[in-house]
Design goal:
single chain; alpha/beta; five-stranded parallel beta sheet; 13 helices
């Protein structure tokens, strides 16, 4: 079998080559091509466009599309796999995506063609869950604000949430999306003494945490953290209707996808002090424009979309996906 792997600035050609060793050892012939960008910001802009508009929003350069047209497997992280590419490679059997989301792949069209689309669940579990806890602590304990004021020559102890900060102990944390990352966040927060409630339409398993409906969660939670996948159904899952139901002392955390929250509604809720604060790592427009309202607010912690940016996350992704593809190849051979 032949495999085309498309590297980028996050998962480099060298990472891809080392990470796909198990696949190569199975006799798969691997060709690695690079989807090149001027810098990480340019790649992120294309990624956001694909997430918002789908796999047909950006065309790949000819040097990736051209050449050998008999690949059985295509592996990508951010590079779009739309109808054009699916039609180009007549022998295509598997599309592997080096992350959990598959917004950059026309998965419906692929399935119509009998092509299996595999993602990489679990690759960001550690990086994003740890970062989420960091965002929570930074926001409620004013860590980044304290740092900012001290570096600007001001000894400040009064912040938007008052002189005495809340603690995680005995706080109610509401997790929206109780998949692998949401559950890991819960596991990390529970030892602090936090009470965990969660909303997830798809969770059917056993857990020590309390599953509630969305309205109950937004009313009861002191801290609300987003961990759903972004779909047509979950777009703007949190909006002004929910902000008005929250405690005035509530804070909202989003290290998942910007579209899960109506960004303009969140801005208004923070401006009017409908809720106490927020911590956000993802945005409708990236990089964040210099005139963005978030930059004028003192009750939000913002970071430049770095929740998943760890060595372990990106370097291990090809290894995780290779194992999934090997299992699928075995299944195809059996059939």
């Amino acid at each position: 079998m032949k495999c085309l792997a498309i590297s980028d600035l996050f998962i480099t050609k060298d990472m891809m080559d080392k990470g796909l060793v198990d696949l190569r050892n199975q006799g798969v012939e691997i060709t690695i091509k690079e989807w090149l960008h001027e810098d990480l910001e340019a790649l992120q802009r294309d990624n956001i466009k694909l997430e918002h508009e789908g796999s047909e929003a950006i065309d790949l350069p000819a040097e990736i599309l051209d050449g050998v047209d008999d690949y059985d497997i295509i592996i990508t992280q951010f590079a779009p796999i739309g109808k054009q590419m699916i039609d180009k490679y007549k022998n295509l059997k598997i599309v592997g995506v080096l992350r959990a989301g598959i917004e950059n792949v026309n998965d419906r069209y692929a399935e119509e063609k009998g092509i299996k689309v595999l993602n990489t669940p679990g690759r960001s579990n550690t990086s994003v869950s740890e970062f989420t806890v960091g965002l929570i602590l930074s926001e409620i304990r004013n860590i980044s604000r304290g740092n900012y004021y001290l570096k600007n020559g001001k000894w400040e102890k009064y912040y938007p949430n008052g002189i005495l900060s809340p603690e995680l102990k005995e706080s109610t944390v509401g997790i929206i999306g109780y998949g692998a990352i949401g559950q890991r966040v819960a596991n990390l927060l529970r030892p602090f003494g936090a009470k965990i409630i969660f909303f997830d339409d798809y969770f059917k398993g056993e857990t020590e945490d309390n599953q509630v409906d969305l309205d109950t969660l937004v009313r009861e939670a002191d801290i609300i953290s987003m961990h759903y996948r972004l779909t047509e159904q979950t777009k703007h899952l949190l909006n002004m209707v929910h902000f008005k139901q929250m405690k005035k002392s509530a804070i909202v955390i989003n290290s998942a996808r910007s579209g899960l929250i109506n960004e303009q509604d969140l801005i208004e809720a923070l401006q009017e002090k409908i809720i106490a604060g927020a911590a956000v790592d993802v945005y409708d427009q990236e990089p964040l424009p210099q005139d963005h309202p978030y930059l004028q607010l003192d009750n939000i912690t913002i970071t430049p979309h770095i929740a998943g940016s760890t060595i372990g996350n990106f370097a291990n992704s090809p290894k995780i996906l290779a194992k999934r593809i090997i299992t699928e190849i075995t299944n195809l051979a059996v059939k």
